[in-house]
Design brief:
alpha+beta; Collagenase (Catalytic Domain); Neutral endopeptidase, domain 2; 3-stranded mixed beta sheet; 7% strand; M13 family peptidase; metalloprotease
Length: 674
């Protein structure tokens, strides 16, 4: 479970920052972004970002624009420089530089890619065409899974949720192409248009792989109908939040008895899974697939798989495939007007395929050891404050507190980049064949996963690459992770005053820590096992407090008639609220947090809250916002800002918020958990 967040803080009182005169201190905030015509007491997000919001034009190739986008763009520019340099030279075969440079060069060779057309996937299509019965169909699907393509199956190898020292294969629901199940059933006009566009996309891909227009149109309709039936067996994003319902362990014999038509011994053999026991997060999907597989015409299944092949591998193929993918995923679902420059697309593919090779080049040039050391200090400081807050909770019993503190103490903290880099010895990169090279990285990722079976769990591995602008909490490892990519402005300023760093990256450190105690994370213990360590009374109190927050966020409206889903977003909202409170308390222990010296006319507390609001600024296209509301566990950024602040007494004091102001929330309705 990777959760969005950020890392960084500024030094605490014991590492006091230097106090400078107001006129000598650089701001680090963006005064030009503020809209002083908006009262901070009514809409702090727009007060902090309103002028920026009005003036910002979302780039045509993007679905939105804001802090994550700007830093992501800066990091990609850095990667471009690295990749152009390394790809322009000849390197020893098999070296880091050869693999990274040649993968980038092959992806940039659009002449060769266009010349190849659909040829790279023709062998797969020929094998699919030769399928004569349902058993051969399942064999084809599960064998090709080793290449990284999941058509009807989705599987990963992770620590067993109830025995985090043992790796297990875990199967997840699959088989559909729209973002989540309700896209198949909603009757509003926007949803109908999305389904129509999806059918058009399927039709294009079928034509590109051999169907005539009339046949492709009919086949696309049949595929949508089949996926609609499959979607009925899916769990919704809210239902997927329950880790206990997602934990189902079966022997292979039990699977075969439950689902005889799929043939599980053969499936596991095809996928090279040497195990007699598997986990299945959503068994209802596979039970439905078992009943459905022979009730649908074989030809319909084959057309669905043919479309899935084109959909999955299309990103590596010629422009007709890439254009069709963009027209649906980019334009329809995200609202982007044009595709990103080729170099951006390829640099991202290099990061996805060879992330810890490219990451070594990135951190060497763009991440300083002193920044990693300071980040470690900041994380430790936040952890100290969190411990104090748990100890003082008035609603939690001593028994549960003891377990909560043990879990907090056991947090593993990963900052910047791994201590031990992954190896990619089995990856073959051919400068003259982008498709084969890209598929080689996918095969490697799968082999890396299944090689974990039967071996001790390696807790040093990372779930994100160093250039990534993101952070996460992993409940199975009980760890918080902050890649180098996010440890830069506007999230982390090495030379900024504490108010800015605590308000920006500090809030994100707190955010990731709080994920360890949100509605999902609280169900895992200090070593990462799914285990109930709460008293019944404390669990009931927690749920009652969280319900206040769910009700609050359910009331937030987006795009006139769309509401935030408080159930779906509860984990992220709780992390936002808790993270801000922890960061603020840590800030108040610094020298700047304890004095009243103004910078740019702003008190230290005002700077803290402005930094928090400005780091979350984001402007989404309407299409992207609609997709996010139904699928994203994060609330829209306006409410990621105003929501936590409206629950924060210190914010009320800093900006003189009173009853009658729109940011005001009665004390009885304020969220008070962590």
């Amino acid at each position: 479970m990777n959760k969005t967040g950020i890392l960084c803080i500024a030094v605490l009182a014991f590492f006091a920052s230097c106090k400078q005169k107001e006129q000598d201190q650089q701001s680090f905030l963006d005064p030009s972004a503020r809209d002083t015509s908006v009262r901070p007491q009514d809409n702090f997000f727009m007060y902090a970002n309103g002028t920026w919001f009005k003036k910002t034009v979302i780039p045509a190739s993007e679905s939105g624009w804001g802090s994550f986008y700007t830093l992501g763009d800066e990091n990609q520019q850095k990667l471009k420089k690295l990749l152009e340099n390394v790809s322009s030279k000849e390197h020893e075969k098999g070296s880091l530089e050869q693999k990274v440079g040649d993968l980038y060069a092959s992806g940039m060779d659009t002449v060769a890619i266009e010349k190849a057309g659909a040829a790279p996937i023709q062998p797969m299509l020929a094998k699919l065409n030769a399928v004569k019965d349902y058993k051969q169909l399942i064999d084809f699907v599960t064998t090709d899974y080793r290449n990284g393509a999941g058509y009807l199956f989705d599987m990963g190898v992770y620590p067993d949720d109830k025995n985090s020292s043992k790796n297990m294969p875990n199967f997840y629901q699959s088989g559909t192409g729209l973002p989540e199940k309700d896209y198949y059933f909603r009757t509003d006009s926007a949803s109908k248009k999305i389904r129509e566009a999806y059918v058009s996309y399927i039709q294009k891909m079928l034509q590109l792989t051999g169907s005539d227009p009339a046949s492709a149109q009919k086949q696309a309709g049949q595929i949508l109908e089949l996926e609609t039936t499959i979607a009925k067996a899916h769990r919704s994003p809210v239902e997927l939040r329950d880790p206990n319902k997602n934990y189902n362990k079966y022997t292979v014999k039990q699977l075969q008895m439950m689902m005889p038509d799929l043939g599980w011994p053969t499936i596991l053999n095809n996928m090279e899974l040497k195990t007699d026991t598997v986990l299945m997060s959503q068994p209802g999907y596979y039970q439905a697939l078992d009943k459905l597989i022979k009730s649908q015409p074989l030809d319909v299944w084959k057309e669905k798989i043919r479309f899935a092949i084109a959909d999955h591998y299309g990103r590596y193929l010629s422009s007709p495939f890439r254009d069709a993918r963009f027209d649906f995923y980019g334009k329809v679902l995200s609202g982007s007007k044009k595709q990103q420059p080729r170099w951006k697309i390829v640099s991202r593919q290099v990061d996805n395929g060879l992330g810890e090779l490219l990451g070594q080049l990135f951190v060497k040039d763009y991440f300083k050891p002193k920044d990693k050391e300071r980040m470690q200090e900041l994380v430790n400081n936040l952890q100290t404050v969190y411990r104090s807050r748990i100890e003082k909770l008035d609603w939690m019993s001593p028994a549960t507190k003891e377990k909560a503190l043990a879990k907090l103490t056991a947090f593993t903290k990963k900052i910047g980049y791994p201590d031990h880099w992954k190896k990619y010895d089995d990856v073959t990169i051919d400068r003259n064949n982008f498709f084969a090279s890209a598929v080689s990285t996918e095969k490697h990722a799968y082999k890396e996963a299944i090689d974990k079976l039967g071996k001790p769990v390696d807790r040093t591995i990372w779930g994100m690459t160093p250039p990534t602008v993101n952070a996460y909490y992993n409940p199975g490892f009980n760890e918080i992770v902050f890649p180098a990519g996010i440890l830069q402005p506007p999230f982390f300023f090495p030379d900024a005053d504490d108010a800015v760093n605590y308000g920006s990256i500090g809030a994100v450190i707190g955010h990731e820590m709080t994920h360890g105690f949100d509605d999902q994370g609280r169900q895992y213990d200090n070593v990462g096992n799914l285990k109930d360590w709460w008293t019944k009374e404390d669990a009931a109190k927690f749920s009652k407090k969280v319900q206040v927050m769910i009700n609050e966020y359910n009331g937030y409206t987006v795009l006139n008639n769309l509401h935030v889903n408080g159930q779906l977003t509860q984990g992220e909202n709780l992390a936002d609220i808790g993270g801000l409170a922890i960061a603020y308390q840590a800030f108040k222990r610094t020298k700047q947090g304890q004095d009243t010296v103004k910078i740019d006319g702003l008190t230290p507390d005002q700077r803290f809250f402005l930094a928090f609001a400005q780091v979350w600024r984001l402007k989404d296209r309407d299409e992207m916002m609609r997709t996010r509301i139904t699928t994203d566990p994060h609330s829209p950024e306006m409410y990621r800002t105003n929501g936590p602040l409206s629950n924060m007494p210190a914010f009320y004091k800093a900006f003189n918020v009173k009853p009658g102001d729109k940011m005001y929330r009665p004390d009885s309705l304020r969220v008070k958990v962590w």
